[in-house]
Amino acid sequence: MRAFLAWLLMLVLCGCGGEKHVYKTQGHVFGTVVEVSIYGETQQHADSLSAQVLKEFDRLHHKLHAWQPSMLTKLNDAIARGQPFQADEEMVQLLQGAAALSARSDDLFNPAIGHLIRLWGFQSSDIHDLAPDPAEIRRWVKANPRLSDLRYEGTVIRSVNPAVMIDLGGYAKGYALDRAAAILRAAHVEAALINVGGNVLAIGQPGEHPWQVGIRDPRGEAMLAKVALHDNEAIGTSGDYERYFMKNGQRHPHIIDPRSGETIDLVASVTVIASGGSDPGLRSDGNSKPLFITGPEGWEAMAHRLGLKEVMLVDASHHVFLTPAMRERMDAGLPQ
Asked: What is the domain count for the chain?
């Protein structure tokens, strides 16, 4: 799910040994634009490190793709046949981490509803204005697929529910951010900013000031706000403005309520900032989904339940809601 955040980068910054630069490399993975900005290195070294990151992104893209041939599609095929699947440790850890978030959110974050996602036409690069059969929606909702249906024997995975179809589109980008950060930290970079389709993670600080990240207005191209992003902080946004279709005047975004099988039309975007630990990217990405599904009435209680302090929600009528900690981060652009 793309949620474009504008980057406000200082391209030339002064350091003790002379000028230090930000070198930026772009690619296209996960069906979206990815960008790696590295500060304080030579261009040759920055280019080499960026190439390593893009190679890792490509590996994850081909491993976790939900509808093109991948390890994930092979796992889903095995689940549909009622057979065990030999995965690997990375896949097991990723699914178990996603299952833990699912449990904390009462399964509002539910990557097991791939059949519903496919039914609505979102497992495709080209989105069309579909009208799913209500009976089919009810069928997959009644089947109640959840990640807790998975069973593990080492790295062998099976499911007690053949209706499980895993789609990690709301989780993989955050994981990719954390993997990129691990690569760059291992190389001891002074500062870097990693962008995977609008999910952004910061390493270090480029000179005297932290990285500045803009949050896009979900109903326009301008910035709604901007925040300073510090070392080991990640910001992720789920929005209704990139992958969606309009039908009979109603917006149908790609985020689906697993309780009803219907798309969500009450929320325009949810932005979450996560910090610390080894997985701020995952937490900023995955945690935005249950808040989006809960909507304007229940998002604060869900944020508290998930331990999130810095959250911004924009509803479909363009009303902006902020946690107190998030309001403190804002320094420009919010409507009053």
From this structure: 2
- What pTM does this model have? 0.90
Q: Which long-range contacts (CB under 8 A, 24 or more apart) does 130-137 make?
A: 130/245, 130/247, 131/247, 137/260, 137/261, 137/262
Give burial (CB, 10 Å; 0-12/13-18/19+) of 14.
exposed
Predicted confidence (pLDDT) per residue in 305-335, tens digit: 999 999 999 999 999 999 999 998 885 444 4
- ∠ CA 271-21-182, rounded to 5°: 50
Pair 214, 121 in one domain: no
The residue among 111, 130, 159 that closes a domain is: 159
Q: Residue 93 and residue 98: Cα distance in Å, rounded?
A: 9
pLDDT at 3: 38
β-pairing, 32-39 vs 199-204, is unpaired
Residue 77 in this model has a pLDDT that exceeds 90: yes
